[in-house]
Write a structure and sequence with these properties.
The chain has 21 helices and 4 strands. The strands form 2 sheets. The protein has a two-stranded antiparallel sheet. The protein has a two-stranded antiparallel ribbon with strand order 2-4. The radius of gyration is 23 Å and the shape is globular. It has 515 residues and is mainly α.
Length: 515
């Protein structure tokens, strides 16, 4: 399962505060803490940002075929045997609502009240967006009815869910607009461990999320009830989007106890099993892309043959669709770069980022949703990805292998004929999605999978002889509903399955956004 816990956790839940190991969100366990908007904001933000730990941290990269795994047969991720999902974080949704209510009733200035209310709607939309992407129809309108004793909440159709997501994000935009003081400056609010209460940055993040939501509707661009094209142009036209990597919604790690990068070797004993895939390495080599030297360690076998670490020949990918025994027996392969496993801060974990934004805009321009140059945004996305990696990696031989990403190199890379868009819409879409895929290495959990299933890009390896999906020539298109839903909310859960999938909660069924 990607997530853990179930809807019933919210329906029976109460106000909880989610703690973090990070210094700036620790509280004194011996003190009596009054529930305030700032306290709830801290808990809700860190609940959303908390990364998976140890081996679970890289599971999404097995699903997206960025990595292969040689320790044991990973059926559910690497070999596509998708099972039941789980829904966690519903208590945090209740806390978001309470945060907004407490702010409204407080003596805070109106602009700070609006900042909390905008944040609450963003956090709600972010979590429910990811839930609907996973399974299809979900409870949305009635999701908090458990507080009044209704534990059998109706499911909204996925179309309704997307309409409600856009409505909430539009309202978040309105609240953030109202988070400015009389001088026109955005108000700061307390309890924010990510942007230190900078409501302008949250405004930019919220609008960028709305563009991501709209991008998932690419197959529904002719739906007149949503008007994806005009809505995308409207959100972009607000002019309140990410400006650089400094605006990324990301979790930054450090060398302090409790703040290490989640796959650091002091926290797990699996680093030798993570093998970088051919899907990543072969493309990076074909483009002479220096990100290869930052993502991977050179093959020990190739080094023993006298090939140097800065030689492209020292890097060998592993086909994650090969038989497990063949993968485990492979002698020439690449593990993760030491900057992920030995360098304690690793790199920040991005949830919504500037590179992603530019790839979203490039795709939208290609589709004719905005009157802009797709190539310009496409190259800005690549540049942002490379700058992010270079800026978050010490310029040391063990991390760069003698191939340092510099501004001069980036411009040379962007000028290469092989990476240019051609004017062929389908080929250009593949190029944009491929670069977005490369930029999501150990980033943006599951986003590359969601892009793949709606576009088919990049082409991921599928081996009918090893694929554990019931349809041997495809990767599943969804996860099944949590078992707890059929135990605690059976009538509504079964109705949703019947409505969408003719009564079969099957991983190969197509949810509304994919039809």
């Amino acid at each position: 399962m990607k997530l853990h816990k179930y809807i019933i956790g919210l329906l029976a839940g109460s106000i909880l505060y989610s703690c973090s190991n990070f210094d700036d969100v620790n509280t004194n366990p011996d003190s009596i803490t009054k529930v305030t908007p700032s306290l709830l904001a801290t808990g809700a933000i860190m609940t959303m940002m908390k990364p998976s730990e140890k081996k679970s941290f890289i599971n999404h990269q097995l699903v997206t075929k960025h990595l292969a795994w040689s320790e044991m047969l990973e059926e559910s991720t690497q070999y596509n045997n998708f099972g039941k999902d789980g829904f966690d974080g519903y208590t945090s949704l209740r806390n978001c609502q309470i945060m907004a209510e407490l702010a409204e009733k407080s003596s805070l200035p109106e602009e700070k009240k609006n900042a909390y209310k905008g944040l609450a709607l963003f956090l709600k939309a972010y979590r429910l967006f990811n839930y609907t992407l996973s399974v299809g129809d979900i409870p949305y309108e009635g999701i908090l009815e458990g507080a009044s004793g209704n534990f059998t909440v109706a499911y909204n159709t996925q179309k309704e869910v997307f309409q409600l997501l856009l409505k909430d994000l539009d309202q978040a935009h309105t609240y953030f607009q109202g988070a400015k003081n009389s001088q026109g400056a955005y108000a700061a609010f307390d309890g924010d461990p990510i942007f230190n209460g900078n409501s302008e940055k949250w405004h930019r993040i919220s609008n960028t999320l709305e563009l991501r939501v709209l991008s998932m509707l690419s197959k529904k661009e002719n739906d007149t009830d949503i008007n994806v094209k005009s809505k995308f142009a409207e959100v972009m036209g607000r002019g309140i989007l990410l400006n650089s990597n400094k605006d990324n919604l990301q979790l930054v790690f450090s060398s302090k106890a409790g703040q290490l990068y989640p796959f650091n070797e002091t926290l797990q004993s699996y680093k030798q099993y993570a093998m970088i895939s051919t899907t990543v390495i072969d493309v990076l080599k074909s483009y002479q892309d220096y990100r290869l030297f930052y993502y991977a360690k050179p093959s020990e076998e190739k080094l023993s043959q006298g090939i140097s670490a800065d030689d492209w020949a020292a890097y060998v990918g592993t086909d994650p669709s090969d038989k497990f025994d063949d993968i485990a027996a492979q002698t020439a392969f690449c593990n993760l770069n030491d900057r992920y496993t030995s360098y304690e801060p690793g790199e920040p974990l991005i949830y919504i980022g500037y590179a992603e934004l530019n790839f979203l805009l490039a795709e939208a321009a290609l589709r004719g949703w905005i009157n802009e140059d797709a190539s310009s945004y496409y190259k800005k996305g690549i540049e942002a990805s490379m700058n992010f990696i270079a800026d978050n990696t010490p310029d040391k031989e063990e991390y760069t292998h003698g191939r340092t990403i510099t501004q001069e190199y980036i411009q040379e890379y962007l000028a290469q004929p092989v990476i240019q868009l051609s004017g062929d819409k389908e080929k250009d879409l593949e190029m944009i999605l491929l670069q977005r895929y490369l930029a999501s290495f150990l980033q943006h959990p599951y986003d590359a999978y969601y892009d793949y299933r709606r576009t088919g890009y990049p082409v991921l390896p599928i081996n009918p002889n090893t694929n554990l999906n019931t349809e041997k020539d495809k990767i599943p298109t969804r996860w099944m509903y949590p078992e707890a839903e059929f135990s605690y909310n059976p009538d509504n859960a079964n109705e949703a399955v019947q409505r969408q999938y003719n009564g079969s909660d099957d991983v190969n069924k197509l949810m509304w956004i994919l039809q």
